Amino acid sequence: xxxxxxxxxxxxxxxxxxxxxxxxxxxxxxxxxxxxxxxxxxxxxxxxxxxxxxxxxxxxxxxxxxxxxxxxxxxx
Amino acid sequence: xxxxxxxxxxxxxxxxxxxxxxxxxxxxxxxxxxxxxxxxxxxxxxxxxxxxxxxxxxxxxxxxxxxxxxxxxxxxxxxxxxxxxxxxxxxxxxxxxxxxxxxxxxxxxxxxxxxxxxxxxxxxxxxxxxxxxxxxxxxxxxxxxxxxxxxxxxxxxxxxxxxxxxxxxxxxxxxxxxxxxxxxxxxxxxxxxxxxxxxxxxxxxxxxxxxxxxxxxxxxxxxxxxxxxxxxxxxxxxxxxxxxxxxxxxxxxxxxxxxxxxxxxxxxxxxxxxxxxxxxxxxxxxxxxxxxxxxxxxxxxxxxxxxxxxxxxxxxxxxxxxxxxxxxxxxxxxxxxxxxxxxxxxxxxxxxxxxxxxxxxxxxxxxxxxxxxxxxxxxxxxxxxxxxxxxxxxxxxxxxxxxxxxxxx
Lengths: 76, 409
Hints:
The complex is a heterodimer of chains A (76) and B (409).
Chain A: H1 2-22, H2 49-58
Chain B: H1 2-22, E1 41-55, E2 70-84, E3 90-104, E4 121-134, E5 141-151, E6 154-166, E7 172-186, E8 212-229, E9 232-238, E10 241-245, E11 253-255, E12 261-263, E13 269-282, E14 288-298, E15 303-310, E16 313-316, E17 319-331, E18 358-369, E19 381-393, E20 397-408
Antiparallel strand pairs in B: 1-2, 1-20, 2-3, 3-4, 4-5, 5-6, 6-7, 7-8, 8-9, 8-10, 9-13, 10-13, 11-12, 13-14, 14-15, 15-17, 16-17, 17-18, 18-19, 19-20
């Protein structure tokens, strides 16, 4: 049942992504004033780096969203 | 009469012309020669500081029971410099230095008979340097990163390669990052499992006798970002990773159903596959919606879903408040069992609740100010952001974090 749920979740993600990308329109540079707003950046905020770091350590499912640079066992 | 009109007209035009000499009606044209300074200039400086505190009662050091109290005061400073080479390509250098000071109550239980073990409180220092060369016309770029991390029982040396490719209309971007960390850590066993230990006595001998062990991590990140319309953009990322070496924490205890005690033991290989997506929408001039979703799986049996929603509210064009909520649910590793419930015949075992079945909520808000004349009128301080977050985990662990980010230009 869990495998079916995960397959469904991945399939849903793939459908959302493909339909989103398929609905793209060509946006000219002069139309990007909103997209260039600092709040619209497609990455975690700089101020989130330590939040992500402790989440990586406190949740075994680490990876995919950055965190501290370098190693560090964070095993305490 | 006609001459008089002509004289008046010329006189008027003369006045306009003389004014035009004093204050140009048209702004100066951009330099079209393509010349760029070759001298290094400072683009920006960031300072990030955070205070983190957690408490719980499932410490892995004491076999899944006992205090998880921990504090961490973390700071990073980064400086970005750039120049242009003779062919007009931009070189960007990013140097970052991080220093953490943490104290952990559970670390003191590695040897509970000593007054204070060496890792009860420790410092971690981690410098890194990135060089990126970019073509500002096409937006394409590539670069390399070198990093180092040092703490009492753990050293890490890292290297990375990054590549960015943009489409002609700059609405689609492909990013790739290949990364390797070659780590070494001292093997420290719980005091009662050290050879030559006498019960009831401290035994803080030289840990170098136990040797050290490698832990190597290799990962790749492939991401595609796409502008969908003038208000919406998305990012899709796949980050396969492989770890090899000592992946268990040897000073964490495990208690078995027959009453025996052993040091944690986990497989020497781990494959991870996280897949994530971001979708940001500029709702109107006041509200922005930032969303994030991630699915994670690995060969230890961990599966996780993470969803995050943040809604920055622009109080003015330069001041915003951003409440956020993050939910995570995790199916734990097959090697996990609570205190005293491990099967004596098991090859791998852990009582680390970070690897157990859990769900968590993390919520808080950020306050950001970036006035054009500088924060508090200080021209150099371009942005100040303060964030607070509260974390609650289903295993009775709670934590709080406060972060301050200052950007100088």
